[in-house]
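As noted in the main text, all predictions were made from sequence alone. Below is one such record, for NACHT, LRR and PYD domains-containing protein 12.
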Amino acid sequence: MIFVFLRLRSENSLDCFIVAGLISSSGLRERSCYILKLLHIISTLNFDMCFEVPPVVTFYSLFCVISVRSGSYVSSSVSVKSDDSKKGGQPNFSRETLSPTTSVQNESSDTDIQTQKKHMSFKDNLQGIFQDLENQILKFLKNELEKFKKILHEENTEYFVKDFGENRCRIKEAALDLTLYFLKEMKQDEAADTLEDELFLIHQLKWDLQKKYQRVFEGIAQQGDSTLLKNIYTDLYITQGGSEQVNTEHEVRQIEVVSRRHEAQEIQVECRRLFEASEQDKQIRTVLTKGVAGIGKSVSVQKFVLDWAEGKENQEISFIFPLPFREMNLKEKETLSLMELITQFFPETKGLNLTRRNQFKVLFILDGLDECRLPLNFAGNETCLDVASPASLDVLLTNLIKGNLLPSALIWITSRPAAASKIPPDCIDRVTEIRGFNDEQKEEYFRKRFTDENQAKEIIDHVKQSKSLFIMCHIPVFCWISATVLQNILEEKRNTVVKNNQADDAFKTLQESNTEDTPKTLTQMYTHFLHFQIQQSRRKYDGEYTPDVSWDKDAILSLGKLAFDNLLNSNLIFYDTDLEACGIDVYKASVYSGMCTQIFKEETGIVLGTMYCFVHLSVQEFIAALYAHLLLDINKKSVFDQDSKNRNESMIDLLKTAVDKTLESDKGHLDLFLRFLLGLSLQSNQRLLRGLLTQQDHNNQIKEEIVQYIKQKFEANLSPERSINLFYCLNELNDQTLVKEIQTHLSKGSLSSVDLSPAQWSALAFVLLTSEEKMEEFELQKFKKSDECLIRLSAVIKTTRKALLNDCNLTDRSCSALPAVLGEENNLKELNMSNNNLQDSGVKLLCTGLKDIKCELEILRLSDCSITEEGYKALALALRSNPSHLIELDLRGNDPGQSGVKELTDLLQDPHCTLKTLRFLSTAAEEACQFVPGVVGKNPLLLKELNLSDCKLGDRRVNQLSALLQDKHCQINTLFLYNCSITEEQCLILSSALKSNPSHLRKLNLSENQIRNTGVNLLCDVLKDSHCKLKTLSLSSCSLTDESYSALTSALKSNPSHLRELDLSQNKLGDSAVKNLSDLLMKPQFKLEKLHLYECSITEKQCEILTSALKSNPSHLRELNLSWSQIRNTGLNLFCDVLKDSRCKLETLRLFGCGISDVSSLTQCLMNTKALQFLKELDLRFNHIGDSKQKLIEGIRDSNCKLSFRIEDQLPKPDDSRCCIS
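Prediction:
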């Protein structure tokens, strides 16, 4: 064993040793790693010395040669981490005397001489070299230790970790190893683990993910050339929100709907900020990102991970673990812990302890939920809390998502829309949706794809000319398909014309070229794509290019069967068993992916296992349609009845069956398949498939027959979605007749006067949906004022932002279309259905859509729609179910009943309710609602009693108040307007309001207002209305005359059954007035209980008339006030005659200030009749009563009655508490 011993004296007098030598003993291989790293410390310093490591080091030996060489650096393949550094093993630093070193023989003698000279120079300067060496080493180590300390203190950790990763070299790794070794020797394991995780495990994971994710294979992985992601990546349009409910529509149909969405109404989310919560949101732990197949979910994941791995974004996250479901499917039957699962997917994290001190922020990306074959039994799976406890994969994932495992971990799940409901909504904190490319991003993609600006512009212009193609370009994969096809067409055309010396034609655009050669429909595009890919594979494998394709029919039949059978079951991912079921040998699967390069792909996951899929769902549907034609062509069988022995299936039979089958599907999963199937029946499209399909002799006849068959289907009651797809089918068949008819009507503006057939209605919907201009506003009056028009055009309505359906003669029948408009993906933010007879039944149908969580309606107008209390309750219930969107609700002109207004105003107290404007009233009434709370402190719509007494209202306020009173939303039943300076003219306004809505008011006080005869006459129009149910009317001090009383009594005679209290005090009653009033009191239907005639100057004669009336109908009156009228003793005696009547039930009699001097008759009446049984209050104050009052007092006291008796003299309180005399 040979050693080189270097002894350095540090500043603190401690020795530092660097050892190198020839190690021949067994078991010391790991220690050589330490020696190498220490030698590298010296090798990187600026000294004339070098350490050369010969190949023999691989045989557990290390030979070190010290020679004089300027600027040398030693490279080594020794691992960054040695086992000893992890285990804390101590290197064997020997102090034995060193043996002479032996130099390696050089190839020339000149080199030997130079080496000897360098050795001599080295020996001469040894002292100075090692002095400088000591200073350099100490300075470097102190600097590195200071960085490590800051990392452990979490001071600027991101910068130092990044510095370590970007400037990583052997010397820094050696310094880290030394630090970790001594920390463990000092029993500081936690500090050592933290430092190791920060600088090694995290860095290693980032390094591996960076290598994996930095390149992208457009269309298909592992075939063709890859591209750096940063060179072609185009930002995708991602929005916040979206429903947790299942969207069962065909994904291409969803894309067509999305294409008409208005971006301004959506909240855009940057992919890099998925987990950033707004100030209003709670902390976001779990994000669900939805998007149709091929829209860019996995590429978004790739970009997110790559930005993190490269240190650009989200550096607060310590570890990101992407776990694709398609790969985890292969472990569905295994039992393992979460840490074992992570280690299997990411071996470089072995030994990681994610739960240590909860210091790590970890993100799990579960990509492709739609590909998951696990049951994900959130309700039934057992709880798992320990990351080290073994469990099934299903249990691990459900507990991870629910937060039982690693509750601090972030979770990002991606899924196609139909599978999103597999995750319970309460496990999701944020839902986002990838919309794909918006129109600007589509162009950006093509400009990045083609460096030739003219070529890019030409392709963009061509795609824009076809609505169906441009819509499909929302999907990045379709952009790639289009770019591939159109680029190939351009190149072939230009190569051909240049070859034929037609230089001028070489610059013809796609539009100027032969139309048959340029795809304008989906079928044409995919047929070109298939043709091109087969050509490419032949060129690759056979080394030859020919315009005609040599088709492998058996292979395409097998591939087509796989596509069709799994399309029926909505499967996109296939495994070995799926291939075997379709007759594909799994050992030859690569043949198929090779033959159809970039159409069918084979993938191998991180863990062992192989998956297969088509590059996109639309490609699978195209291959399935091609299979249907091929099966018919070869076997004369229909794909819909493959087991049948019938071998006489015709093309038209196949096409008709496909139309029927597609229309039977509510979710439309065969929609695109049908488009391709019909498109492939055209001779123009079969031209590219010659050699594969037999050319039909009667294609035109088949086309005409299937076109007519499709048009007949419009007569059935098809959903708008199914109808629209049939028009896309007609488009694939190049039939535009119905569309052109409707376009003619639109250009003439004659639609409102034309009766359209069901087919024409569907054509109108299709034209509006595919127009170049996005419709911001839909106005039904421009088309037809009818329920049918709304129902037929509902698919159009939901693509607009504002729908004006008001004044269109709509009924509750049209409301049946509204749940689909509001409850599915839509743009609608404002809906106006005012002035239609919807009634409660229509509103209930509307509420079905409102309560749907997909409904994002912000403004709803339902004024004058015949809605009652029941409809209001339905609205309140719907808005409680989905309170977070509607900000304005207009219900003016409806009748809310007793509780309708309260049902909705209570909703405003809900903290989740976003409703800001709840409009029940006209503008004037709204103004009343603004000034009234300033007086009474409450919203008048919630009041039963409104007291504005002593407020000088004036004309403006009276107008506002009248507008409020005449609205059915106003439920005020008691109105006090005492001393409000109301004039005769203002009384006209008030009376008009009360007349228009007379059913609520029960008590009205207009006292101390000079309304005079005119005002009373106007008020009488209200009183005589049979709907008026007024119980109390106060008109004291209103300057009434005999004319007023005549009108008043006449009105009350016509509607006598409701009034119970009448106050006419402080108005002079003439003889005719008293006569009219008495006539009213005599009517048995008039059931007045309280009559106030205080200070009305009633004479003894008039009192005789009144008492006569009371005697004829004495059973109703309970209270009578004739105070300050000079009825004298005569009048009192007359009233005694009334009290003597056994039918009299009078309880209160007020006669103060009436000139009474003798009460003897009253005493006798009270003592000898049953009057005291009813009489509760008797007021005789301010009368000059003589000695007779004493007998009255004694008689009342002895009667054991409960009478409250008031008289001028102040008497001591009687012992009997039941009798109160004053």
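Confidence is low (pLDDT under 50) at residues 1-108, 220-224, 243-248, 1209-1222. The chain has 46 helices and 34 strands. These features were considered when defining construct boundaries for the mutagenesis experiments described in Section 2.9.
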